[in-house]
Write a structure and sequence with these properties.
- By secondary structure, this protein is α/β, with parallel strands linked by helices.
- The protein has one domain: Alpha/Beta hydrolase fold, catalytic domain (Rossmann fold), CATH 3.40.50.
- It contains nine helices and nine strands.
- The strands form two sheets. The protein has a seven-stranded mixed sheet with strand order 1-3-2-4-5-8-9, sandwiched between helices. Strands 6-7 form a two-stranded antiparallel ribbon.
- β4, α4 and β5 form a beta-alpha-beta unit.
- α3 crosses α4 and α4 packs parallel to α7.
- The termini are far apart.
């Protein structure tokens, strides 16, 4: 089996710091690169930071197709165990599907808190219910669909965005299964949670953040809105507002 190297500038990262750890989790078909700026910002505030690479990501689309959602969860769990071993507490911070993965882990492990950015609880296409019946057939005749470019409020930021250029149908089905696992766990989450979402996100629509906020079981939860940013709020728009909100959320809970 051919092995694929990690795409340059899309590597996982680790920045040593203080006793509070921040585990950063990228999204579906994306790479650790989308979380690196946030990671560097957090590290400058004194936090120990790790950015994980999800299985099948940041190498080749073939690796993505072979991976399963359990592999993605395992990547986050592995990062949590590593970071938990060298810090006093760990906050999970995920973007898009990375937020969904973080919420699942928060329902199962003693994390200090969760930040979900542009997080989803259901797959953002209307034919998800077809997946169980048609995946095997469509995977042969229509194995992937091109990603749309998306609208960037800060176009130069899009130039450095590293991701796969298509959505493999088999992987989209795995995302569907992942979110089905997440949904009944959301009310069981009882750690501090911060959701950050752009009102201008035309990929994961704002209603998803509202649903997650409403159904999360934690009594310590916040929903913050940003504007003039697309789905990629760690890269597009005024990212300093997002980064500072994350820092304040953590600082207020480790006093």
């Amino acid at each position: 089996m051919e092995k694929h190297l990690i795409i340059p500038k899309a590597e996982p990262f680790f920045f040593p710091g203080g006793p509070t750890g921040c585990l950063l989790v990228h999204g579906f078909t994306a790479t650790p690169q989308v979380m690196r700026n946030l990671g560097e910002y957090l590290n400058k505030q004194g936090f120990t930071v790790m950015g994980v690479r999800l299985a099948g990501h940041a190498t080749s689309i073939e690796d993505m197709i072979r991976s399963r959602y359990a592999d993605w969860l395992a990547s986050v769990e592995e990062g949590w165990h590593l970071l938990q071993g060298i810090t006093e507490r760990v906050f999970l911070m995920g973007h898009s599907m990375g937020g969904s993965l973080s919420l699942i882990l928060a329902a199962r492990f003693p994390v200090a808190g969760v930040v979900g950015m542009s997080t989803l609880y259901e797959i953002p296409i209307g034919f998800a219910w077809f997946f169980p019946r048609l995946t095997r057939i469509l995977n042969v005749v229509y194995p992937s669909r091109p990603k749309r470019k998306g609208n960037w409020f800060n176009p130069p930021a899009a130039e450095g965005y590293i991701r796969y250029l298509c959505n493999p149908l088999r992987s989209s089905y795995e995302l569907h299964l992942l979110l089905k696992e997440l949904q009944p766990l959301v009310p069981k989450i009882d750690v501090p949670v911060l959701f950050i979402h752009s009102r201008d996100d035309d990929y994961i629509l704002p209603y998803q953040a509202e649903w997650l906020y409403e159904h999360t079981g934690s009594q310590d939860k916040e929903l913050m809105w940003v504007e003039k940013a697309n789905h990629h709020i760690t890269q597009d728009g005024d990212t300093s507002v997002v980064f500072q909100a994350v820092v304040e959320f953590v600082v207020q809970r480790v006093k």
